[in-house]
Write a structure and sequence with these properties.
Helix content is 31%, strand content 20%. The protein has 571 residues and is of the alpha/beta class.
Protein backbone atom coordinates (compact mmCIF):
# COMPACT_ATOMS: atom_id res chain seq x y z
CA UNK A 1 0.00 0.00 0.00
CA UNK A 2 1.76 3.15 -1.17
CA UNK A 3 -0.84 5.73 -0.22
CA UNK A 4 -1.75 6.87 3.25
CA UNK A 5 -5.20 6.16 4.59
CA UNK A 6 -7.41 9.10 3.82
CA UNK A 7 -8.77 10.83 6.87
CA UNK A 8 -11.19 13.71 6.64
CA UNK A 9 -11.47 15.33 10.04
CA UNK A 10 -14.18 17.72 11.15
CA UNK A 11 -13.05 20.78 13.01
CA UNK A 12 -14.05 20.97 16.67
CA UNK A 13 -17.02 23.01 17.75
CA UNK A 14 -16.38 26.41 19.29
CA UNK A 15 -16.33 25.06 22.86
CA UNK A 16 -14.39 21.86 22.09
CA UNK A 17 -10.93 21.26 23.57
CA UNK A 18 -8.11 19.02 22.42
CA UNK A 19 -8.07 15.68 24.18
CA UNK A 20 -4.30 15.36 24.00
CA UNK A 21 -1.56 17.87 24.50
CA UNK A 22 1.28 18.11 22.02
CA UNK A 23 4.67 18.95 23.57
CA UNK A 24 5.46 22.63 23.13
CA UNK A 25 8.60 21.92 21.11
CA UNK A 26 6.60 19.98 18.49
CA UNK A 27 5.71 22.83 16.18
CA UNK A 28 4.68 22.48 12.59
CA UNK A 29 4.54 25.04 9.84
CA UNK A 30 1.53 26.72 8.25
CA UNK A 31 1.33 28.01 4.70
CA UNK A 32 -1.67 30.25 4.00
CA UNK A 33 -2.22 29.51 0.33
CA UNK A 34 -4.54 31.42 -1.98
CA UNK A 35 -6.38 29.02 -4.28
CA UNK A 36 -7.46 31.74 -6.70
CA UNK A 37 -10.96 32.32 -8.06
CA UNK A 38 -11.72 28.79 -9.28
CA UNK A 39 -9.61 27.83 -12.29
CA UNK A 40 -6.91 25.40 -11.03
CA UNK A 41 -4.56 26.69 -13.74
CA UNK A 42 -4.39 30.04 -11.94
CA UNK A 43 -2.64 28.54 -8.92
CA UNK A 44 0.89 29.82 -8.41
CA UNK A 45 3.87 27.48 -8.81
CA UNK A 46 4.60 27.90 -5.10
CA UNK A 47 1.04 26.93 -4.17
CA UNK A 48 1.25 23.67 -6.14
CA UNK A 49 4.64 22.89 -4.60
CA UNK A 50 3.28 23.35 -1.07
CA UNK A 51 0.19 21.24 -1.75
CA UNK A 52 2.47 18.41 -2.91
CA UNK A 53 4.49 18.64 0.32
CA UNK A 54 1.57 19.11 2.73
CA UNK A 55 0.74 16.63 5.47
CA UNK A 56 -2.56 18.37 6.16
CA UNK A 57 -4.75 20.68 4.09
CA UNK A 58 -7.27 22.73 6.06
CA UNK A 59 -10.16 23.59 3.76
CA UNK A 60 -13.02 26.03 4.07
CA UNK A 61 -15.33 24.50 1.44
CA UNK A 62 -16.15 20.78 0.85
CA UNK A 63 -15.20 20.94 -2.85
CA UNK A 64 -11.65 22.05 -2.07
CA UNK A 65 -10.56 18.46 -1.43
CA UNK A 66 -11.49 17.57 -5.00
CA UNK A 67 -9.78 20.76 -6.17
CA UNK A 68 -6.53 19.63 -4.54
CA UNK A 69 -6.81 16.16 -6.06
CA UNK A 70 -7.28 17.72 -9.50
CA UNK A 71 -4.24 19.96 -9.03
CA UNK A 72 -2.08 17.06 -7.88
CA UNK A 73 -3.42 14.69 -10.52
CA UNK A 74 -4.67 12.19 -7.93
CA UNK A 75 -7.59 9.81 -8.51
CA UNK A 76 -10.51 9.53 -6.15
CA UNK A 77 -9.80 7.38 -3.07
CA UNK A 78 -11.01 3.81 -3.30
CA UNK A 79 -11.51 0.82 -1.05
CA UNK A 80 -8.82 -1.85 -1.47
CA UNK A 81 -7.81 -4.98 0.40
CA UNK A 82 -4.46 -4.80 2.16
CA UNK A 83 -1.97 -7.63 2.68
CA UNK A 84 -3.82 -8.74 5.80
CA UNK A 85 -7.07 -9.10 3.86
CA UNK A 86 -8.61 -6.04 5.49
CA UNK A 87 -10.52 -3.41 3.53
CA UNK A 88 -8.87 0.00 3.75
CA UNK A 89 -9.17 3.26 1.84
CA UNK A 90 -6.27 4.02 -0.45
CA UNK A 91 -5.96 7.78 -0.93
CA UNK A 92 -3.05 7.50 -3.38
CA UNK A 93 -0.77 9.63 -1.21
CA UNK A 94 -3.14 12.57 -0.82
CA UNK A 95 -2.72 14.84 2.21
CA UNK A 96 -5.08 14.60 5.14
CA UNK A 97 -8.05 16.93 4.65
CA UNK A 98 -9.39 18.79 7.68
CA UNK A 99 -12.70 20.61 7.43
CA UNK A 100 -12.11 24.19 8.55
CA UNK A 101 -15.45 25.44 7.35
CA UNK A 102 -17.82 23.85 9.85
CA UNK A 103 -17.64 22.52 13.39
CA UNK A 104 -18.94 19.22 14.69
CA UNK A 105 -22.29 20.87 15.34
CA UNK A 106 -22.61 21.68 11.64
CA UNK A 107 -22.39 25.41 12.19
CA UNK A 108 -19.99 27.61 10.20
CA UNK A 109 -16.85 28.40 12.16
CA UNK A 110 -15.95 31.96 13.09
CA UNK A 111 -12.56 33.33 12.10
CA UNK A 112 -11.32 32.76 15.65
CA UNK A 113 -12.43 29.13 15.78
CA UNK A 114 -11.04 28.43 12.31
CA UNK A 115 -7.73 29.84 13.53
CA UNK A 116 -7.83 27.35 16.42
CA UNK A 117 -8.23 24.51 13.92
CA UNK A 118 -5.13 25.65 12.04
CA UNK A 119 -3.06 26.05 15.19
CA UNK A 120 -4.14 22.65 16.50
CA UNK A 121 -3.00 20.91 13.29
CA UNK A 122 0.32 22.72 13.32
CA UNK A 123 0.91 21.70 16.93
CA UNK A 124 0.86 18.10 15.75
CA UNK A 125 4.24 18.89 14.24
CA UNK A 126 2.91 18.67 10.69
CA UNK A 127 3.28 20.70 7.53
CA UNK A 128 -0.07 22.44 7.14
CA UNK A 129 -1.56 24.20 4.12
CA UNK A 130 -4.47 26.45 4.94
CA UNK A 131 -6.21 26.67 1.57
CA UNK A 132 -8.17 29.89 1.11
CA UNK A 133 -10.32 31.17 -1.74
CA UNK A 134 -8.78 33.99 -3.73
CA UNK A 135 -5.94 35.67 -1.82
CA UNK A 136 -5.38 35.08 1.93
CA UNK A 137 -4.94 38.81 2.61
CA UNK A 138 -7.67 40.19 0.33
CA UNK A 139 -11.16 40.09 1.88
CA UNK A 140 -10.29 36.85 3.67
CA UNK A 141 -9.57 35.68 7.21
CA UNK A 142 -5.85 35.22 6.54
CA UNK A 143 -4.71 38.08 8.82
CA UNK A 144 -6.66 36.80 11.84
CA UNK A 145 -5.50 33.20 11.38
CA UNK A 146 -1.88 34.24 10.81
CA UNK A 147 -1.98 36.33 13.99
CA UNK A 148 -3.16 33.25 15.90
CA UNK A 149 -0.17 31.30 14.57
CA UNK A 150 2.20 34.10 15.58
CA UNK A 151 0.71 34.15 19.07
CA UNK A 152 1.16 30.37 19.37
CA UNK A 153 4.77 30.57 18.23
CA UNK A 154 4.09 28.71 14.98
CA UNK A 155 5.96 29.70 11.85
CA UNK A 156 3.93 30.60 8.79
CA UNK A 157 4.15 32.02 5.29
CA UNK A 158 1.69 33.77 3.01
CA UNK A 159 1.32 32.58 -0.57
CA UNK A 160 -0.75 35.15 -2.47
CA UNK A 161 -3.44 33.91 -4.79
CA UNK A 162 -5.12 35.50 -7.77
CA UNK A 163 -7.97 37.55 -6.33
CA UNK A 164 -11.43 37.18 -7.83
CA UNK A 165 -11.70 40.97 -7.74
CA UNK A 166 -9.19 41.18 -10.59
CA UNK A 167 -9.36 37.72 -12.20
CA UNK A 168 -13.09 37.47 -12.82
CA UNK A 169 -13.37 40.81 -14.66
CA UNK A 170 -10.30 39.82 -16.71
CA UNK A 171 -11.98 36.53 -17.70
CA UNK A 172 -15.10 38.52 -18.58
CA UNK A 173 -13.06 40.78 -20.89
CA UNK A 174 -13.44 43.84 -18.63
CA UNK A 175 -10.16 45.63 -17.82
CA UNK A 176 -10.29 47.52 -14.55
CA UNK A 177 -8.04 50.27 -15.85
CA UNK A 178 -6.91 51.66 -19.18
CA UNK A 179 -5.24 54.86 -20.32
CA UNK A 180 -8.35 56.94 -19.64
CA UNK A 181 -9.62 55.20 -16.49
CA UNK A 182 -6.93 54.99 -13.82
CA UNK A 183 -8.86 54.67 -10.54
CA UNK A 184 -10.36 51.49 -9.11
CA UNK A 185 -12.24 50.91 -5.86
CA UNK A 186 -13.08 47.45 -4.53
CA UNK A 187 -16.09 47.39 -2.23
CA UNK A 188 -17.40 44.51 -0.09
CA UNK A 189 -21.16 44.99 -0.05
CA UNK A 190 -21.99 42.96 3.03
CA UNK A 191 -21.79 45.90 5.42
CA UNK A 192 -23.30 49.39 5.34
CA UNK A 193 -21.58 51.42 2.63
CA UNK A 194 -21.56 55.17 2.09
CA UNK A 195 -22.13 55.15 -1.67
CA UNK A 196 -21.72 58.91 -1.92
CA UNK A 197 -17.96 58.27 -1.69
CA UNK A 198 -18.16 56.58 -5.12
CA UNK A 199 -20.05 59.26 -7.03
CA UNK A 200 -17.16 59.94 -9.42
CA UNK A 201 -16.48 58.05 -12.65
CA UNK A 202 -13.85 55.71 -11.21
CA UNK A 203 -14.26 51.97 -11.77
CA UNK A 204 -16.08 50.09 -9.01
CA UNK A 205 -15.61 46.39 -8.30
CA UNK A 206 -18.44 45.12 -6.10
CA UNK A 207 -18.16 41.92 -4.07
CA UNK A 208 -21.25 40.10 -2.75
CA UNK A 209 -23.58 42.50 -4.54
CA UNK A 210 -26.03 40.10 -6.23
CA UNK A 211 -28.80 40.29 -3.66
CA UNK A 212 -28.57 44.02 -3.13
CA UNK A 213 -27.65 45.27 -6.60
CA UNK A 214 -30.97 47.10 -7.01
CA UNK A 215 -30.45 49.16 -3.85
CA UNK A 216 -26.78 49.73 -4.71
CA UNK A 217 -27.60 50.95 -8.21
CA UNK A 218 -30.27 53.30 -6.85
CA UNK A 219 -27.84 54.69 -4.26
CA UNK A 220 -25.15 55.29 -6.86
CA UNK A 221 -27.58 57.10 -9.15
CA UNK A 222 -28.75 59.25 -6.24
CA UNK A 223 -25.10 59.97 -5.43
CA UNK A 224 -24.60 61.37 -8.92
CA UNK A 225 -23.66 58.49 -11.18
CA UNK A 226 -25.45 58.45 -14.52
CA UNK A 227 -28.27 55.93 -14.83
CA UNK A 228 -26.69 54.82 -18.12
CA UNK A 229 -23.36 53.89 -16.49
CA UNK A 230 -22.36 50.45 -17.86
CA UNK A 231 -22.44 47.48 -15.46
CA UNK A 232 -21.21 43.91 -15.88
CA UNK A 233 -22.08 41.10 -13.47
CA UNK A 234 -20.19 37.81 -13.83
CA UNK A 235 -21.04 34.65 -11.93
CA UNK A 236 -18.75 31.64 -11.28
CA UNK A 237 -15.90 33.43 -12.98
CA UNK A 238 -12.82 31.71 -14.49
CA UNK A 239 -14.53 28.34 -14.94
CA UNK A 240 -16.61 27.05 -17.83
CA UNK A 241 -19.92 27.78 -16.09
CA UNK A 242 -19.05 31.49 -16.16
CA UNK A 243 -21.73 33.79 -17.50
CA UNK A 244 -21.88 37.55 -17.72
CA UNK A 245 -24.76 39.97 -18.05
CA UNK A 246 -24.06 43.54 -19.17
CA UNK A 247 -26.49 46.34 -18.46
CA UNK A 248 -26.67 49.81 -16.94
CA UNK A 249 -27.19 51.05 -13.40
CA UNK A 250 -30.81 51.75 -14.28
CA UNK A 251 -31.58 48.22 -15.49
CA UNK A 252 -29.00 45.90 -13.91
CA UNK A 253 -31.30 44.61 -11.16
CA UNK A 254 -33.98 43.47 -13.61
CA UNK A 255 -31.45 42.14 -16.13
CA UNK A 256 -29.57 40.15 -13.48
CA UNK A 257 -32.83 38.59 -12.31
CA UNK A 258 -33.78 37.73 -15.88
CA UNK A 259 -30.36 36.13 -16.44
CA UNK A 260 -30.72 34.24 -13.13
CA UNK A 261 -27.36 35.49 -11.89
CA UNK A 262 -26.54 33.92 -8.53
CA UNK A 263 -23.61 34.16 -6.11
CA UNK A 264 -20.68 33.99 -6.33
CA UNK A 265 -20.51 36.92 -8.71
CA UNK A 266 -18.34 39.96 -9.29
CA UNK A 267 -19.87 43.23 -10.46
CA UNK A 268 -17.99 45.97 -12.30
CA UNK A 269 -19.44 49.48 -12.63
CA UNK A 270 -17.89 51.98 -15.02
CA UNK A 271 -17.12 52.84 -18.60
CA UNK A 272 -14.49 50.07 -18.82
CA UNK A 273 -17.40 47.63 -19.17
CA UNK A 274 -17.88 48.86 -22.73
CA UNK A 275 -14.55 47.27 -23.68
CA UNK A 276 -16.01 43.82 -23.10
CA UNK A 277 -17.56 43.90 -26.57
CA UNK A 278 -14.10 43.62 -28.13
CA UNK A 279 -12.09 42.04 -25.28
CA UNK A 280 -14.34 39.15 -24.28
CA UNK A 281 -12.02 36.16 -24.83
CA UNK A 282 -13.08 33.42 -22.42
CA UNK A 283 -16.82 33.12 -22.99
CA UNK A 284 -16.25 33.38 -26.75
CA UNK A 285 -14.04 30.31 -27.01
CA UNK A 286 -15.40 28.06 -29.77
CA UNK A 287 -16.44 25.24 -27.42
CA UNK A 288 -17.11 27.34 -24.33
CA UNK A 289 -19.18 25.38 -21.85
CA UNK A 290 -19.72 22.47 -24.23
CA UNK A 291 -20.02 19.17 -22.42
CA UNK A 292 -17.96 16.82 -24.59
CA UNK A 293 -18.02 13.05 -24.25
CA UNK A 294 -14.62 11.40 -24.65
CA UNK A 295 -15.19 7.65 -25.14
CA UNK A 296 -11.61 6.44 -24.83
CA UNK A 297 -9.39 4.44 -22.55
CA UNK A 298 -8.37 6.50 -19.53
CA UNK A 299 -4.68 6.32 -20.42
CA UNK A 300 -5.23 7.68 -23.92
CA UNK A 301 -7.57 10.56 -23.09
CA UNK A 302 -5.13 13.02 -21.49
CA UNK A 303 -3.96 14.96 -24.56
CA UNK A 304 -7.45 15.01 -26.07
CA UNK A 305 -9.15 16.33 -22.94
CA UNK A 306 -6.43 18.91 -22.36
CA UNK A 307 -6.92 20.29 -25.87
CA UNK A 308 -10.70 20.36 -25.43
CA UNK A 309 -10.31 22.40 -22.25
CA UNK A 310 -8.10 24.82 -24.15
CA UNK A 311 -11.04 25.56 -26.44
CA UNK A 312 -13.39 26.02 -23.47
CA UNK A 313 -14.91 22.54 -23.53
CA UNK A 314 -15.83 20.47 -20.49
CA UNK A 315 -14.60 16.97 -21.36
CA UNK A 316 -16.05 13.95 -19.60
CA UNK A 317 -14.12 10.74 -20.05
CA UNK A 318 -16.14 7.55 -20.37
CA UNK A 319 -13.89 4.52 -20.79
CA UNK A 320 -15.32 2.23 -23.45
CA UNK A 321 -12.30 0.01 -23.97
CA UNK A 322 -10.32 -1.90 -21.39
CA UNK A 323 -6.84 -3.05 -22.34
CA UNK A 324 -5.96 -6.46 -20.89
CA UNK A 325 -3.13 -8.97 -21.31
CA UNK A 326 -3.58 -11.74 -23.89
CA UNK A 327 -5.34 -14.87 -22.67
CA UNK A 328 -2.34 -16.98 -23.65
CA UNK A 329 0.95 -15.18 -22.97
CA UNK A 330 3.13 -17.93 -24.44
CA UNK A 331 3.13 -16.45 -27.95
CA UNK A 332 4.32 -13.10 -26.61
CA UNK A 333 6.96 -14.78 -24.43
CA UNK A 334 8.32 -16.67 -27.43
CA UNK A 335 8.44 -13.53 -29.57
CA UNK A 336 10.31 -11.52 -26.92
CA UNK A 337 12.86 -14.33 -26.56
CA UNK A 338 13.23 -14.33 -30.34
CA UNK A 339 13.81 -10.58 -30.29
CA UNK A 340 16.62 -10.93 -27.76
CA UNK A 341 18.16 -13.80 -29.75
CA UNK A 342 18.23 -11.76 -32.97
CA UNK A 343 15.39 -13.51 -34.79
CA UNK A 344 13.93 -10.28 -36.26
CA UNK A 345 15.08 -7.53 -38.60
CA UNK A 346 12.16 -5.23 -37.71
CA UNK A 347 9.65 -4.63 -34.92
CA UNK A 348 6.55 -2.67 -35.92
CA UNK A 349 4.48 -0.86 -33.29
CA UNK A 350 0.96 0.04 -34.43
CA UNK A 351 -0.21 1.69 -31.22
CA UNK A 352 0.93 3.17 -27.93
CA UNK A 353 -0.66 0.16 -26.22
CA UNK A 354 1.61 -2.15 -28.20
CA UNK A 355 4.66 -0.24 -26.97
CA UNK A 356 3.35 -0.47 -23.42
CA UNK A 357 2.70 -4.23 -23.71
CA UNK A 358 6.21 -4.98 -24.99
CA UNK A 359 7.77 -2.73 -22.38
CA UNK A 360 5.88 -4.48 -19.58
CA UNK A 361 7.03 -7.85 -20.92
CA UNK A 362 10.62 -6.58 -20.98
CA UNK A 363 10.34 -5.46 -17.36
CA UNK A 364 8.93 -8.86 -16.46
CA UNK A 365 12.06 -10.50 -17.89
CA UNK A 366 14.45 -7.91 -16.44
CA UNK A 367 15.33 -6.56 -19.90
CA UNK A 368 15.81 -2.97 -20.99
CA UNK A 369 16.14 -0.99 -24.22
CA UNK A 370 19.59 -2.43 -24.93
CA UNK A 371 17.87 -5.59 -26.19
CA UNK A 372 16.81 -3.60 -29.28
CA UNK A 373 20.42 -3.24 -30.42
CA UNK A 374 20.65 -3.93 -34.17
CA UNK A 375 16.85 -4.07 -34.54
CA UNK A 376 14.97 -1.64 -36.79
CA UNK A 377 11.90 -0.04 -35.25
CA UNK A 378 8.78 1.15 -37.06
CA UNK A 379 5.99 3.28 -35.57
CA UNK A 380 2.55 3.81 -37.09
CA UNK A 381 2.49 7.51 -36.17
CA UNK A 382 3.92 10.34 -34.11
CA UNK A 383 2.15 9.35 -30.88
CA UNK A 384 3.53 5.82 -31.06
CA UNK A 385 6.97 7.18 -31.94
CA UNK A 386 6.80 9.43 -28.86
CA UNK A 387 5.99 6.43 -26.67
CA UNK A 388 9.01 4.66 -28.14
CA UNK A 389 11.17 7.73 -27.50
CA UNK A 390 10.04 7.77 -23.87
CA UNK A 391 11.65 4.33 -23.63
CA UNK A 392 14.95 5.78 -24.83
CA UNK A 393 14.56 4.46 -28.39
CA UNK A 394 14.21 6.11 -31.78
CA UNK A 395 11.85 4.93 -34.49
CA UNK A 396 13.64 4.21 -37.77
CA UNK A 397 10.43 4.42 -39.78
CA UNK A 398 7.39 6.66 -39.28
CA UNK A 399 4.90 7.19 -42.14
CA UNK A 400 5.66 10.32 -44.13
CA UNK A 401 2.03 10.56 -45.17
CA UNK A 402 -1.09 9.08 -43.58
CA UNK A 403 -0.42 7.87 -40.04
CA UNK A 404 -2.01 4.46 -40.37
CA UNK A 405 -1.15 0.91 -41.34
CA UNK A 406 -1.62 1.90 -44.98
CA UNK A 407 0.74 4.84 -44.53
CA UNK A 408 3.28 2.57 -42.87
CA UNK A 409 3.11 0.10 -45.76
CA UNK A 410 3.53 2.91 -48.28
CA UNK A 411 6.96 3.74 -46.82
CA UNK A 412 8.03 0.21 -45.83
CA UNK A 413 11.03 -1.01 -47.87
CA UNK A 414 10.71 -4.33 -49.72
CA UNK A 415 12.81 -7.22 -48.49
CA UNK A 416 16.26 -7.32 -50.09
CA UNK A 417 18.13 -10.59 -49.60
CA UNK A 418 21.43 -8.75 -50.05
CA UNK A 419 20.85 -5.78 -47.71
CA UNK A 420 18.62 -7.51 -45.17
CA UNK A 421 20.28 -10.36 -43.27
CA UNK A 422 16.95 -11.42 -41.72
CA UNK A 423 13.53 -11.39 -43.39
CA UNK A 424 11.27 -11.51 -40.33
CA UNK A 425 9.13 -8.80 -38.69
CA UNK A 426 7.80 -8.88 -35.13
CA UNK A 427 4.33 -7.29 -35.07
CA UNK A 428 2.89 -6.96 -31.51
CA UNK A 429 -0.74 -5.92 -31.83
CA UNK A 430 -4.23 -6.02 -30.43
CA UNK A 431 -6.32 -9.16 -30.74
CA UNK A 432 -8.83 -7.35 -32.97
CA UNK A 433 -6.30 -5.82 -35.39
CA UNK A 434 -6.97 -6.19 -39.11
CA UNK A 435 -4.79 -8.31 -41.38
CA UNK A 436 -4.05 -5.58 -43.95
CA UNK A 437 -0.61 -4.78 -42.54
CA UNK A 438 0.44 -8.42 -42.40
CA UNK A 439 -0.74 -9.04 -45.97
CA UNK A 440 1.08 -5.95 -47.19
CA UNK A 441 4.34 -6.92 -45.54
CA UNK A 442 4.13 -10.42 -47.01
CA UNK A 443 3.62 -8.86 -50.46
CA UNK A 444 6.85 -6.92 -49.86
CA UNK A 445 8.70 -10.17 -49.21
CA UNK A 446 8.74 -10.14 -45.42
CA UNK A 447 7.66 -12.89 -43.02
CA UNK A 448 5.58 -11.72 -40.06
CA UNK A 449 5.16 -12.96 -36.54
CA UNK A 450 1.75 -11.38 -35.89
CA UNK A 451 1.53 -11.62 -32.09
CA UNK A 452 -1.35 -10.71 -29.79
CA UNK A 453 0.32 -8.38 -27.28
CA UNK A 454 -2.89 -7.19 -25.64
CA UNK A 455 -6.64 -7.57 -25.82
CA UNK A 456 -9.19 -4.78 -26.14
CA UNK A 457 -12.50 -5.52 -24.46
CA UNK A 458 -15.54 -3.45 -23.69
CA UNK A 459 -15.40 -1.53 -20.46
CA UNK A 460 -18.18 -1.73 -17.92
CA UNK A 461 -21.17 0.55 -18.60
CA UNK A 462 -20.92 4.11 -17.21
CA UNK A 463 -23.17 5.18 -14.32
CA UNK A 464 -26.88 5.61 -15.00
CA UNK A 465 -26.76 9.46 -15.00
CA UNK A 466 -24.09 9.38 -17.71
CA UNK A 467 -26.07 6.90 -19.81
CA UNK A 468 -29.14 9.11 -19.48
CA UNK A 469 -27.12 12.18 -20.49
CA UNK A 470 -25.87 10.38 -23.60
CA UNK A 471 -29.31 9.29 -24.72
CA UNK A 472 -31.17 12.50 -23.83
CA UNK A 473 -28.84 14.99 -25.51
CA UNK A 474 -27.21 16.51 -22.44
CA UNK A 475 -23.82 16.15 -24.09
CA UNK A 476 -23.05 18.80 -26.69
CA UNK A 477 -20.58 16.67 -28.63
CA UNK A 478 -18.90 13.29 -28.68
CA UNK A 479 -15.49 12.61 -30.21
CA UNK A 480 -14.86 9.15 -31.65
CA UNK A 481 -11.21 8.20 -32.18
CA UNK A 482 -11.78 4.76 -33.69
CA UNK A 483 -14.50 2.46 -34.98
CA UNK A 484 -14.22 0.39 -31.81
CA UNK A 485 -15.07 3.41 -29.64
CA UNK A 486 -18.27 3.85 -31.66
CA UNK A 487 -19.29 0.21 -31.35
CA UNK A 488 -18.38 -0.02 -27.68
CA UNK A 489 -20.04 3.23 -26.61
CA UNK A 490 -23.29 2.26 -28.31
CA UNK A 491 -22.96 -1.20 -26.79
CA UNK A 492 -22.46 -0.09 -23.19
CA UNK A 493 -24.40 3.19 -23.10
CA UNK A 494 -26.66 3.49 -26.13
CA UNK A 495 -26.71 5.88 -29.09
CA UNK A 496 -25.97 9.57 -28.54
CA UNK A 497 -29.00 11.81 -29.00
CA UNK A 498 -29.66 13.26 -32.46
CA UNK A 499 -28.80 16.79 -31.21
CA UNK A 500 -25.30 15.78 -30.14
CA UNK A 501 -22.51 16.83 -32.50
CA UNK A 502 -20.62 13.76 -33.72
CA UNK A 503 -16.90 14.23 -34.46
CA UNK A 504 -14.80 11.37 -35.85
CA UNK A 505 -11.11 10.87 -36.53
CA UNK A 506 -11.37 9.54 -40.07
CA UNK A 507 -13.43 7.91 -42.85
CA UNK A 508 -13.44 4.41 -41.35
CA UNK A 509 -14.77 5.73 -38.03
CA UNK A 510 -17.32 7.86 -39.90
CA UNK A 511 -18.59 4.81 -41.74
CA UNK A 512 -19.00 2.88 -38.49
CA UNK A 513 -20.84 5.81 -36.90
CA UNK A 514 -23.23 6.03 -39.84
CA UNK A 515 -23.82 2.27 -39.70
CA UNK A 516 -24.99 2.82 -36.12
CA UNK A 517 -27.46 5.51 -37.18
CA UNK A 518 -25.33 8.51 -36.23
CA UNK A 519 -25.00 11.61 -38.38
CA UNK A 520 -21.36 12.69 -38.63
CA UNK A 521 -20.90 16.46 -38.33
CA UNK A 522 -17.12 16.74 -38.06
CA UNK A 523 -14.29 14.64 -39.51
CA UNK A 524 -10.59 15.24 -38.97
CA UNK A 525 -8.55 15.87 -42.10
CA UNK A 526 -5.84 13.53 -40.77
CA UNK A 527 -6.00 10.77 -38.13
CA UNK A 528 -4.78 12.77 -35.15
CA UNK A 529 -6.60 13.63 -31.93
CA UNK A 530 -5.19 17.17 -32.12
CA UNK A 531 -6.55 17.63 -35.64
CA UNK A 532 -9.86 16.11 -34.52
CA UNK A 533 -10.27 18.58 -31.64
CA UNK A 534 -9.22 21.47 -33.86
CA UNK A 535 -11.87 20.46 -36.40
CA UNK A 536 -14.52 20.34 -33.68
CA UNK A 537 -13.40 23.79 -32.47
CA UNK A 538 -13.69 25.13 -36.04
CA UNK A 539 -17.20 23.71 -36.19
CA UNK A 540 -18.08 25.41 -32.90
CA UNK A 541 -16.64 28.73 -34.05
CA UNK A 542 -18.59 28.61 -37.32
CA UNK A 543 -21.77 27.67 -35.50
CA UNK A 544 -21.30 30.58 -33.09
CA UNK A 545 -20.67 33.02 -35.95
CA UNK A 546 -23.80 31.83 -37.77
CA UNK A 547 -25.96 32.32 -34.66
CA UNK A 548 -24.62 35.83 -34.12
CA UNK A 549 -25.06 36.75 -37.78
CA UNK A 550 -28.67 35.61 -37.72
CA UNK A 551 -29.37 37.59 -34.57
CA UNK A 552 -29.94 34.53 -32.40
CA UNK A 553 -28.52 34.03 -28.91
CA UNK A 554 -25.40 31.90 -28.72
CA UNK A 555 -26.49 28.53 -27.38
CA UNK A 556 -24.94 25.11 -27.04
CA UNK A 557 -26.20 22.09 -29.01
CA UNK A 558 -27.71 20.69 -25.80
CA UNK A 559 -29.76 23.89 -25.42
CA UNK A 560 -31.79 23.20 -28.54
CA UNK A 561 -35.52 22.91 -28.14
CA UNK A 562 -37.05 19.53 -29.03
CA UNK A 563 -38.65 20.97 -32.17
CA UNK A 564 -35.25 22.07 -33.43
CA UNK A 565 -33.49 18.77 -32.92
CA UNK A 566 -32.36 17.13 -36.10
CA UNK A 567 -32.88 13.50 -36.88
CA UNK A 568 -30.02 11.08 -37.38
CA UNK A 569 -29.53 9.63 -40.82
CA UNK A 570 -28.50 6.15 -41.72
CA UNK A 571 -26.47 5.01 -44.67
Amino acid sequence: MTGRKIKTTQAPAANATASTQIPSQARGWVSFVGSGPGDPDLLTVRAVELLREADVVVTELPEQADFVRTVLGLPEPKVVVDEAGKEVIDDFGAPEFVDGGFGQDGQPLTHANRAKVVVKQAKRGLTVVRLMNGDPFVFASGPEEAQACAKAGIGFEIVPGVSSATAVPAYAGVPLTNKTHREVSVVACGDRVDWSRYADKGTLVLLSAVGSIGDIAKALIEAGRSATTPVAMTQTGTVTTQSTVTSTLEHIAADARAAKIAPPAITVVGDVVNLRETLSWFETKPLFGWRVLVPRTKEQAASLTSRLRGFGGVPEEVPTISVEPPRNPQQMDKAVRGLVEGRYEWIAFTSVNAVKAVREKFEEYGLDARAFSGLKIAAVGDKTAAAIAAWGLRADLVPSGEQSAAGLLADWPPYDDVLDPINRVFLPRADIATENLVAGLIDLGWECDDVTAYRTVRATPPPAPTRDAIKSGKFDAVVFTSSSTVRNLVGIAGKPHASTIIAVIGPATAKTAEEHGLRVDVMASSPSVEVLVDALADFGASRRADLIESGQPVTKPSDRKPSARRRATTS
